[in-house]
Amino acid sequence: MHSWVDGQPAHAVPLKDRGLAYGDGLFETIAVKAGQPVLLDRHLQRLDEGCRRLAIVADQTLIRSELQAYAAALGEGVLKLILTRGDSLRGYGTHAGAVARRILQGSPPATYPQAHGSSGIRLFACATRLSEQPLLAGLKHLNRLEQVIARSEWRDTEHAEGLMLDMSGRVIEGVFSNLFLIRDGMLLTADLSRCGVAGVMRAELLAQAQALGIALTVADITLEQLQEADEVFVCNSVYGIWPVRGCGAMSWSVGPLTRKLQGIVRALLDI
Amino acid sequence: MHSWVDGQPAHAVPLKDRGLAYGDGLFETIAVKAGQPVLLDRHLQRLDEGCRRLAIVADQTLIRSELQAYAAALGEGVLKLILTRGDSLRGYGTHAGAVARRILQGSPPATYPQAHGSSGIRLFACATRLSEQPLLAGLKHLNRLEQVIARSEWRDTEHAEGLMLDMSGRVIEGVFSNLFLIRDGMLLTADLSRCGVAGVMRAELLAQAQALGIALTVADITLEQLQEADEVFVCNSVYGIWPVRGCGAMSWSVGPLTRKLQGIVRALLDI
Hints:
The structure is a homodimer. Chain A is α+β, with helices and mostly antiparallel strands. The first copy, chain A, folds into two domains: 4-107, D-amino Acid Aminotransferase, Chain A, domain 1, CATH 3.30.470; 114-269, D-amino Acid Aminotransferase, Chain A, domain 2, CATH 3.20.10.10. Chain A has helices at residues 18-22, 40-54, 60-74, 114-118, 145-151, 200-211, 223-227, 256-269, and strands at residues 4-5, 8-9, 12-14, 25-33, 36-37, 77-84, 101-107, 121-125, 159-165, 171-174, 178-183, 186-190, 216-219, 231-236, 240-247, 250-251. In chain A, the strands form two sheets. In chain A, strands 8, 9, 10, 11, 12, 13, 14, 15 and 16 form a nine-stranded mixed sheet that branches. The first copy, chain A, has a six-stranded antiparallel sheet with strand order 2-1-7-6-4-5. The longest helix of chain A has 15 residues, at 40-54. Chain A is globular and about 55 Å long. Chains A and B meet through strand 3, helix 1, strand 7 and helix 5 of A and strand 3, helix 1, strand 7 and helix 5 of B. Strand 3 (12-14) of chain A pairs antiparallel with strand 3 (12-14) of chain B, so a sheet runs across the interface. Chains A, B: Its EC number is 4.1.3.38. Chains A, B: It is an enzyme of class 4 (lyase).
């Protein structure tokens, strides 16, 4: 399917775009099922938060209607929205009249092995650490060199994802996923106020857990806590939940709470 | 003048470009005088270092000849090279066959007030801190949201540049400049192994100082050291050197070593 730029079919962006020049923008990767963008409200909520924090002026109503129209035309697959601050004058300075550019790209459904969800995966222990920047933490912004470097650390298919720590050694997330631990029936996921991407599936799971009366904690996580977890899983808004069986010398079994949450997510993603 | 993409006149890049998607690339901003790219060897050296550290495969000989040809056509002004990792497949993963994309854009000579160089400037004390990431430190990569946020902190014309500290409070650089202190005749500039951009003019000044027998130190700098400096200046490869007269409550006079280095840089940049 053709990509759209500002609502029109297009395959390129002007060289002056600040997304290209500085990574000055945000993105969302959205599963599309039966012509509907899955978890659209949560994606738009994170995008809106990103726009507010980065002072990017964008028409959220227009973005919502474009995402819905594009998803309807795509039918099944993955929809990627890139929202940049628009064109640059000269240098880092922004100007009041800047209009955000909306880029929509569609692709076929993701083709991860079925076994990732059923049998679980192994995480590669990335040496690349996440730097700590509260001004950007949580946002799905376009400055993603740390993820590019981390993802280049392994090429084998034995590892489906990578584990990333921050500069202080806290356990934060996967390269393209959020991470959850389960211990004594309680869900634990990393506080993302210094670094990390606050994933839409993470937000959905936190809300679902609360609705189900599952105890949950958002806090700093140590490697010791990870090691001692009863269950571990990663999640994102495209593949849902993958149980984690191992990472380096650590190993976990796939447990009942992970399976329960997988059931909920499968219903959402229709997988 | 028309921009070039991979040696051909163009005004846009494909939506799949990884520079747009992830800020996955590098850039150089080069002064052009009498059809020549100024300090070309140093720009290419930094670019080459960036390619090596980010594992971007690019033809440095081709880049050199393109920069020379573009500068010859531009005559006078500023040449910006963006080198991206090329097109993306899906996700952060890179593939061995990726070919770097070369984007050249020209603009007229910068129009900073003459007084910045003659009378000196004031720095705005930015609240935005630089995060610490040794894997990216020193490189002029495309992940520049910190600079975008820092530059948005002031709109007045009283401040020509902003002062940036790192997360630990060390004095690092300007938003688009490197910073030098002079104390007892010795030059001091920040160690950039944790964060910051290792500017081409900074490298040139360090080499010139060494050739002139001026004592120089590259080390961590505290705010106290900044306050107690005899002279302070900022530099980059487009405007050369601006003496710094003040920043917040701190103030300095424009001194003889700054003036001496300005003379050298003026000859280079022909300003």
